Amino acid sequence: xxxxxxxxxxxxxxxxxxxxxxxxxxxxxxxxxxxxxxxxxxxxxxxxxxxxxxxxxxxxxxxxxxxxxxxxxxxxxxxxxxxxxxxxxxxxxxxxxxxxxxxxxxxxxxxx
Amino acid sequence: xxxxxxxxxxxxxxxxxxxxxxxxxxxxxxxxxxxxxxxxxxxxxxxxxxxxxxxxxxxxxxxxxxxxxxxxxxxxxxxxxxxxxxxxxxxxxxxxxxxxxxxxxxxxxxxx
Lengths: 112, 112
Known about the structure:
The complex is a heterodimer. Chain A contains no helices and eleven strands. Chain A has strands spanning 4-7, 10-13, 18-25, 31-37, 44-50, 53-57, 64-70, 73-79, 87-94, 102-103, 107-111. In chain A, strands 2, 4, 5, 6, 9, 10 and 11 form a seven-stranded mixed sheet that branches. A four-stranded antiparallel sheet of chain A has the order 1-3-8-7, with no helix packed on it. By secondary structure, chain B is mostly beta strands. Chain B has strands at 4-5, 10-14, 19-21, 24-25, 32-38, 44-50, 56-58, 64-68, 73-78, 87-94, 100-102, 106-111. In chain B, strands 2, 5, 6, 10, 11 and 12 form a six-stranded mixed sheet that branches. In chain B, strands 3-9-8-7 form a four-stranded antiparallel sheet, with no helix packed on it. A two-stranded antiparallel ribbon of chain B has the order 1-4. In chain B, β8 and β9 form a beta hairpin. Chain B is globular and about 40 Å long. The A-B interface holds A 2, 4, 6, 31, 33, 40-43, 45, 48, 50, 55-56, 88, 90, 92, 94, 96-106, 108 and B 32, 34, 36, 41-46, 49, 51, 88, 90, 92, 94-100, 102-105, 107.
């Protein structure tokens, strides 16, 4: 099973709202990732967790706050977002290093 | 610096004809190379990867790719295209840190 699940599928939020995106995998992967993708562009890495610890933060604004409660779950907390943050947010997991990353279906976020 | 290039923004192919989506990579370290496909409003699906060994790599849905060290290329191929193959294709390489380096993507359009 190479499934990564993400909820919700769609999210509309105002600039003052607080919301969270959730990602889950049960493949025993030790690395989990958040990406942001604009239409027809390659995904941009935001955060990497390795063994539940944040290992890479690609200078992401603090209005995005990741959390890894356990080895299967990854959250992305959103607060005071801007309209330009509207995008497809993808979660991925892997065994780490240069191993294959498996992506979830994404959350389509619209910030009004 | 490690990089990946997909020289074509779009490739148009008639159904039943062979298809090729081109990818070249920079010569830096040992390239771990991947192809992923993305259907509209979906996450990325892993197709195949080259780590080492046989230069011809077979993947999902009848796709294959040939690693060519002298030409620093990793073109994606399929002998007979299907309309359902129409999607956005990404070539990418992986570094030891787990970061993926994406090509800019190629839209494949297969016409009946």
